[in-house]
Amino acid sequence: MQSSSRASIGRPGGFFVVSAAVALALPAIGFGRSFVVPWSRGQLTPSPLLVAHAVAFFAWVVLLLVQALLVRGRRVDLHRRLGWAGVGLAVLMLGTGLAVAFGSTARGLAEGGGPAASGFLLRLLLELGLFAAFAGVGIALRRRPEAHRRLMLLATMSLMAAASARVPLLVDWPIAVMLVLVGSLAVFDLADRRRVHAATLWGGAALMSVQLAWQPLSETRTWQATAPWLLGALELLPRGG
């Protein structure tokens, strides 16, 4: 039973190594030019919280690649032990991500950002919600490798829109980038299994739905009223803000 499970985990490793490498390259390019380079030149002074979130984000995608390489090399034993670091990183990313989202939106509203600032918050909340759902279920299904590997990849994909929006050639195509990422996983499923895995189908549908729906939803009166109320309830807005 153990050797059969190990063989099953190792079989499709090449696709997931390439996917993890792409997931690392997008934020490395996007945030490298918009965050790391200005910071290194003294043109940007990020808060410690933002730095912590950035470090956790890059650590997550690096870990995803390392984990894929371990599976490819049939070191599933080490992959499983290292997986607990992923649990801690997921919690750290979610906590710092929420704090950054609320703090940035509060500053944006206080500075007159209006609907754009509120929309930014909705997008981040939806993407972080998908990340938490995919990562949480993926961790819970770690003994089911076919679902696990797809869910962890989908969790990472859910965070790629912000990274691709900072890559010059991709800045205007976040939906297209997400479609390519999800589509490549579906094509792999068809080639490998002759059918699309349920995690790919439902996860991909959720990812595309968020990318298509967040902006129209953010422009509704309901959300434009909800965002300031939520930030006020968290005492992040000045009185009367």
Structure description:
With 241 residues, the protein is mostly helical. It has helices at 2-10, 13-40, 48-72, 76-110, 115-140, 145-157, 160-164, 174-193, 198-218, 221-233. Helix 3 (48-72) packs antiparallel against helix 4 (76-110). The radius of gyration is 19 Å and the shape is globular. 31% of the residues are buried.
Quick recap:
The protein has 241 residues and is mainly α. It is 81% helix and 0% strand.
Please write the string of helix (H) and strand (E) elements: HHHHHHHHHH
**Relative helix content:** over 70%
Q: Would you tell me the overall average pLDDT?
A: 86
- Label the overall shape: globular
Give me the number of helical elements: 10
Total number of beta strands: 0
Structural class: mainly alpha
**Major sheet, described briefly?**
none
Radius of gyration: 19 Å
Strand fraction equals under 5%
Uncertain residue segments: 1-10
Distance between the termini: 61 Å
Q: Can you give keywords for this protein?
A:
single chain; mainly alpha; 10 helices; disordered N terminus
Q: How are the SSEs ordered, and which strands pair?
A:
Elements: H1 2-10, H2 13-40, H3 48-72, H4 76-110, H5 115-140, H6 145-157, H7 160-164, H8 174-193, H9 198-218, H10 221-233
Helix pairs in contact: 2-3, 2-6, 3-4, 4-5, 5-6, 5-9, 5-10, 6-9, 8-9
